[in-house]
Amino acid sequence: MKPLKEYKIYYPWEKTFNKFASPFENFLHQQTTTGLVLMFMTVVALFLANTPIQHSYHHFFETYIVVGFGDFKIDMSLHHWINDGLMALFFFLIGLEIKREILVGELSDIKNAILPIVAALGGVIVPALIFYQINVGLPSENGWGIPMATDIAFAVSALVLLGSRVPVALVVFLVALAIVDDLIAVGVIAIFYTEQIHLVPLGFSLGFFALLITFNRFGIHHPLPYFIIGVIMWAFMLQSGVHATIAGILAAMTIPARPAYSPESFHQNMQKLTQKFSEYKWDKSFQLHDQQKSTLHKMNDSIYSIQAPLNRLEHGLHLPISLIVIPLFALANAGIAIDFSGIGSAVLEPATLGVMSGLVIGKVVGIAGVSFIVIKMGFAKLPEGSTFSQLFGVSLLAGIGFTMSIFIANLAWPGNAELLLQAKIGILLASLFAGIGGYLWLRYVAKSQELV
Predict the structure, then answer these.
(1) Taking residues 259-272, what's their average pLDDT?
(2) Does 117 share its domain with 182?
(3) Rounded distance, CA 400 to CA 120, Å?
(4) Adjacent-strand bridge partners of 73
């Protein structure tokens, strides 16, 4: 019996276009794309800030945009809309990733979760202590949270570029570590970088959060109600004094992680619908009959229902946030005017030195050091197929603290242009050193097997 032919109707230029479209789509979905786009926008921001149009560049992001009606309106600069508004979507995505990791990912099994959790704690506490020790008693001491964060896009991109030289388990370890790192950073932002709390709008925001939980408990799976109430919750959170991006994390925690139907129900339903679809005959123009259209709609609904809202949203948001939100954040925040004649003195400023030392030295000591201790004590084990030398290289890469570090710097020293400049110089230099150093270490120094 001959196998059935695959009938595919191609338009005249479709095959040629697919040769270019498919690889490009695959490229966009790779994690490295995020890092590359972010790097490109950082270079663009630095270029614009060091050219004759630097005033126009900064003035553009200070343009005020008013949204609202009557007495309730939000009046912020474009810069703040990006940092407080669009970045709430970034934190929403982080929240989805955290929830997935806790439910079914690396953090769902305590045996696997011990190492990335304690490593993340070390990688947060040690950098913060180093920064604080250098800046204690100075106006900059409040910036201790800046070197705590790891930029997962850049760090994972470097590991992906190394290919088979790095075991997959080590990549999973870094992702889990970065997610715990983000969770701690969110807590720090909510607790330590909230200057004044207004209880009435905070109460309204928490009330809408409770409503989102109610949606979850009633089994509402459509994302639209969550989006509408989430935006309202964000607006009240913004008025409360608690940083509005926390609303993104809270909203993500309420998104259902279970599909509307079980896999068994989906399988049985699709079998019936497929059989029903095959019973209808095609006409010569290959047009669908009304019955076929109805069946296809039911199949599409079944496919939609078998996917948990959490997974659908995480998949759907990853690309726009990676290619639009984060690059816009970099464009708005990474533009610093570099005075090369005075960069030597800027590096020696306590704020700059604290950020650099925290990200480069603190991350390595905190992550590699704590991991070494818990592994030797028998509480955890190395990621499968990896070595301590490779773990050291990953600890170096964790010193890339770009996105979240700049975000926290804006919260620590709002309106203080001098300290923000010093922090950004420290973040850029430390991230550059950590990225290059970690990549070279893993490529040329670290061994794939321990020498015995």
Answers:
(1) 79
(2) yes
(3) 14
(4) 68
Please, what is the angle between helix 152-162 and helix 417-440, to 10°? 20
Residues 86 and 110 in one domain: yes
Q: Give the range among 14-28, 43-57, 291-305, 393-407 with minimum mean pLDDT.
A: 14-28
Q: Encoding tokens for residue 100?
A: 């997935």
Total of domains in the chain:
2
| Mean pLDDT value of segment 218-239 | 92
Over residues 296-346, the pLDDT tens digits come to 787 877 777 788 889 889 888 888 888 888 889 889 888 877 776 667 777
Measured in degrees and rounded to the nearest 5, phi and psi for residue 74 equal -115, 120
**Is residue 387 domain-shared with residue 421, that is, in the same domain?**
yes
C-alpha span between 395 and 364 (Å, rounded): 5
Please tell me the distance from the alpha carbon of residue 47 to that of residue 53, in angstroms, as a whole number. Answer: 10
Residue 1 has pLDDT above 90, yes or no: no
Neighbour count for residue 68 (Cβ, 10 Å): 10
C-alpha 334/C-alpha 25 separation (Å) is 28
Could you list the beta-strand ranges (E) of 275-326.
Answer: none
Q: Which two tokens stand for residue 444?
A: 């040329």
The pairs formed by 44-47 with CB atoms below 8 angstroms and a separation of 24 or more are 44/331, 45/330, 45/331, 45/332, 45/333, 45/334, 45/335, 46/334, 46/335, 46/336, 46/338
Q: Give me the helix-helix angle, 168-192 and 388-397, nearest 10°.
A: 40
Other CB atoms closer than 10 Å to residue 44's CB: what's the count? 16
Q: Which domain holds residue 299?
A: 267-278+289-307
Ramachandran bin of 336, using left for φ above 0, alpha for ψ from -120 to 50, beta for the remaining angles: beta
Q: What is the 3-state secondary structure (H, E, C) of 16-77?
A: HHHHHHHHHHHHHCCHHHHHHHHHHHHHHHHHHHCCCCHHHHHHHHCCEEEEEECCEEEEEE
Q: Determine contact, residues 79/62, Cβ cutoff 8 Å.
A: yes
Count of H helices and E strands in the chain?
Answer: 22, 2
